[in-house]
Amino acid sequence: MCTGRVDPSHITRAFSKGTDGVFVGGCRLNECNYITHGNHHALNMVLLYKKILEHIGLNPERLKIEFMSGSEGNVYVDTVNTFVEKIKELGPLGKSEGLDQEVLNLKFKAITDLNFYLRLMQNERLRIRFDTREEYEKFYASAELQRLFKELIADKLAISEIMLLLREKPLTMGEISQLLNLTPSETSRHLNSIAKQGLVRYGEGKWSYALLA
């Protein structure tokens, strides 16, 4: 299967089921057997997803992509073995990063709910094409990408997480901030955004927010 078929939902599904690390292997860049150059798409997607992992508190090194030709079996074996050793070093998913399992499950559910949106953003607002891996990595380390990530993805994820929490029960702003590790000002901004859409209500008597039926 071409790496261009790898979707963010595949990676999310693997991590949400407790997989400690995900490896994606593809053909070398600019050596695509087809006209799609799917390996460029895969690299762009993986680098974006590594940003998401870092954002939710997981080590981005749990996700890796490497490129090699079909004749380089020895390179594949060495690369996979090195990755396996790295994952053993990192330890169990979430526990090594000090994340509560329920909170981690919530975060992956929020990512799952945004899967279509993530694909849309990658294909439209984050659609880039470089010749080398180094150029892709330089872009994903840039201030421009950080701005776009916050504007297009980080805020959407936070709102998705808040909505999932409020589906369970009403919560105060402080409780939401603590559970999601958000500052009070961030939580307030997101709640105000949701309230303007008519999705939540504030109960003054209980000082809490709840989803509207």
Give the percentage of residues in beta strands.
Answer: 5-15%
Give the oligomer, counting copies of the same chain as homo and different chains as hetero.
single chain
> Which segments are poorly predicted (pLDDT under 50) over 5 or more consecutive residues?
none
Strand numbers in spatial order across the main sheet: 1-2
- Biggest sheet features: 2 strands, parallel
Shape: elongated
Task: Give the distance, in angstroms, between the N- and C-terminal Cα atoms.
Answer: 44 Å
SS-based structural class?
Answer: mainly alpha
Domain module tally? 2
Q: Please, what is the average pLDDT?
A: 92
Tally of DSSP β-strands: 4
**How many distinct helices?**
9
Order of helices and strands: HEHEHHHHHHHEE
List the defining traits of the structure above.
two-stranded parallel ribbon, elongated, single chain, mainly alpha, 9 helices, Arc Repressor Mutant, subunit A, 2 domains, 213 residues
